[in-house]
């Protein structure tokens, strides 16, 4: 997590380098959401509108930031294009991305956004995973330590590109109703059914029952590549992972919501097995 800084608090050298790319800036808007980048701003300038995000080289978040910079050119089908990058300016790495005229997705059970969100999930599942040198993380490394049985680690392995963070603030709905996916900092390589599970948990936090969430993500072909055993194990792993995150970051309500959602899903799958 990073503390967001205001535009006037960004070092003058960094602001000047950004403006050299954008042209004279006429308006700056700092978004309220997100916590992966210290610099995040929507800029209007003579050259148009651009969204900039940046991380200090010395911050641990630089790894995820560089991952996003590497992955973004490979996901142009669903994500804003990377216009430019300032990889080393005053100790910062800054990205300039296309700004989208869109709103955050609504995942609630009665939302009309749900078909577009599931279509987006399907499209992501069709994008080849970039080469290893793009430094996407590995699903085995991320979830493997939380699996109920170490022998089940192999079920996470695969060559699918995964976004893994389907926070509705990362899914933007345009005026035409289509959905786009931003913030690829946590992109991973793994089994194709993992992304539907990540979306499912977010849907449960917005009011879906486990059955309803499974119904919606079940529209994506990737969901059907999982066996019931795969899903049962991942539900347990997700519960352990999110409970650990919630315990470490108990001041953030959304981490507790995710822990509850994972527990609810896991309990529902256990009850189904024993019914």
What features would you describe in this structure?
It is a single chain. The protein has 275 residues and is α+β, with helices and mostly antiparallel strands. 36% of the residues lie in helices and 20% in strands. It is built from eight helices and eleven strands. β9 and β10 form a beta hairpin. α5 (194-205) crosses α6 (210-217). The protein is globular, with a radius of gyration of 19 Å.
Mean pLDDT across all residues, rounded? 93
Overall number of strands: 11
How many angstroms does the end-to-end distance come to? Answer: 41 Å
Instruction: Provide the helix percentage.
Output: 25-40%
Q: Which residues form runs of ≥5 with pLDDT under 50?
A: none
Structural class label: alpha+beta
Strand order of the largest sheet: 1-2-3-5-4
Strand content: 15-25%
Give a topology summary.
Elements (H helix, E strand, L loop, with lengths): L11 H11 L2 E5 L9 E7 L2 E9 L5 H10 L10 E8 L2 E7 L3 E3 L9 H11 L12 E2 H5 L16 E3 L8 E4 L4 E3 L6 E3 L3 H12 L4 H8 L10 H21 L4 H22 L1
Parallel strand pairs: 7-11
Antiparallel strand pairs: 1-2, 2-3, 3-5, 4-5, 6-9, 8-11, 9-10
Task: Explain briefly what this protein structure is.
36% of the residues lie in helices and 20% in strands. The protein has 275 residues and is an alpha+beta fold.
Keywords:
Kinase-like_dom_sf, single chain, five-stranded antiparallel beta sheet, three-stranded antiparallel beta sheet, Phosphotransferase family protein, 275 residues, alpha+beta
